[in-house]
Amino acid sequence: MQTTNKPVTVMNADGLILGRMATYVAKRLLNGEEIVIVNAEKAILSGKKSGKLEDAKEFLGVGAPQRGPFHFRRPDRIVRKSVRGMLPIKQPKGKQAYKRLKVYLGVPSDLKDQKMETLVDAQARKLTCPYLTIGEFAKEIGWNPGE
Question: 31: domain CATH number?
Answer without folding.
Answer: 3.90.1180.10
